[in-house]
Amino acid sequence: MQEKRKRFVIVGGGTAGWIAALMMQQHAAQNELPIDITMVESSKIPTIGVGEGTTAVFRQILFELNLDEVEFVRETGATIKFGIRHKDWRRKGYSYDGPIDDPNLLSPNPAFTPAEQASALDVYAVSTGKGVAGTHLFQHLMLREKSPFGLDEQTGELIPSGPFQHAFHFDQSQVGAWLRKKASGIEHIDAEVDSARKNTETGDLEGLVLSDGREVSGDFFFDCTGFRKKLIGDIMGAKWVSYADTLPVNRAMPFWIEHDESKDIAPLTLAWAQKAGWMWSIPTRERIGCGYVYSDEFTTPDQAKSEIETALGHEIEPRNDIRFVGGRLDRAWIKNCLSLGLSSSFLEPLEATSIHGTIVQLMLFTKFHMKDAAGTSDQARDHFNRAVEQQLDDFRTFINIHYAGQREEPFWQHVRKNCMHEKAREMLAHWSGNMPRRTDFAAFPGDLPHINEQLYYPVLDGLGLLDAKVAKTDMAARPKVRAHARKATDAMIRDFRQAAGKCIGHREYLDKVAEGSVSFSWH
């Protein structure tokens, strides 16, 4: 007997909604699941683009969905991201980079166990006092403002500089529109949701009443309505869990600035610490999306605007001044309704956790829950919700630790004294006498991408929170590993400098993509 087809209804498009649609459609096709997908989004609700960064997991999804990367960059005005430059976080006048590639993956030695050589390159770098970023290919590409590709001049084929996945910057409104164009076989309804019909016995959603009077029935529903939380909050009753006690910035002032055409386009996100928070700077092809994320307990909107204008040396035109409370829902999945993206959580955009978190949650859902989602058990829902809670709480802790530098303004002293989460304090106390290891981090279900020591090392090292003496003691206890790390470090720095020298510049790459003179094939 043929299984009855299920209807999955996504409310709200944008990047989160259309990634969800494409990932679930592909999973259903690959696993012969009888699922139809309907997208309900309104063209009357504007999407505000302020510039957004991703992690490497976004490029992984482009690959898995067999989407053309060159077309994506050309049509969305995206740029390359190799990592984050943290300016003035440790103290004024001091910057450090957080490249997102992991050179430890290139230096395994069969003579040592994984535990023996874990993070060996990072520990060795700290022990020498030279900083951990130098062994990263992406650091060399950041410093020289390169693209991740060399170029075959005869064929126009882009040649990858190494095995690592880079990330992107883009205007999310353009990416949502491009993903919508790439979707086929997905029913698309242009309307707003006015209300919903629930089963009086089970509490499940049965249908949505649209603004034009139509009703859309479904078996499972996804809330991608952003801050409005139209389904999961208004109808299903999810509650907000605030992170304000540990992430005290509560306002964002976004604005755009123009590129300096005499300079290359930086292939990195700039996070620039200020008196009462920090400023992001995210380059897209046409302009740079910026914003000041600050605490209104320590400055006013007028003072914040003046501070940024002084820092930049010119006036800005804020597009808005948005109040927010960082945090997450107490339950991302209630009955047959699952929230994704900004409907589920919001953290200050310091480490590009928003789209990354959404994609990983979708990986978790499709891998373990999608087949039986419409009739899933309370236990399965709880398992998913606990995983999302772990993910977001770990993001919170990671961001929280960024504030543990040495700045002396009242805001920064307040955060260090009053806002460091207990887990952050415990981790920092442990790392004052030990080097970070993968075993310091709880495994994420399905071994899916998550925060680990590879991301922590540049931040801890950059803030001066790792002790070179501890690293030297660690290396001294493993002399053969130290010798291996020294040799691998010297070789990587030499090879990565050469590789970066063969790559075309970032602006040149973007220009060639725009004119259609280059191509790239996934291998």
In short:
With 523 residues, the chain is of the alpha+beta class.
The count of strands amounts to 24
The number of helices is: 15
- For the termini, the CA-CA separation is 41 Å
- The SS-based structural class is alpha+beta
Which descriptor suits the 3D outline?
A: globular
Mean pLDDT: 96
Contiguous runs where pLDDT drops below 50 for at least 5 residues? none
Query: What percentage of the residues does DSSP assign to strands (E)?
Result: 15-25%
Return Rg in Å: 23 Å
- The percent of residues in helical segments reads 25-40%
The oligomerization state is single chain
Main sheet, how many strands, which sense, barrel?
7 strands, mixed
Strands in their spatial order, largest beta sheet: 6-5-17-18-19-16-20
Fold and architecture overview:
The chain is α+β, with helices and mostly antiparallel strands. The protein is built from 15 helices and 24 strands. A 7-stranded mixed sheet has the order 6-5-17-18-19-16-20. Helix 1 links the parallel strand 1 and strand 2. Helix 1 packs parallel to helix 8, helix 4 crosses helix 13 and helix 4 packs across helix 14. The two termini are 41 Å apart.
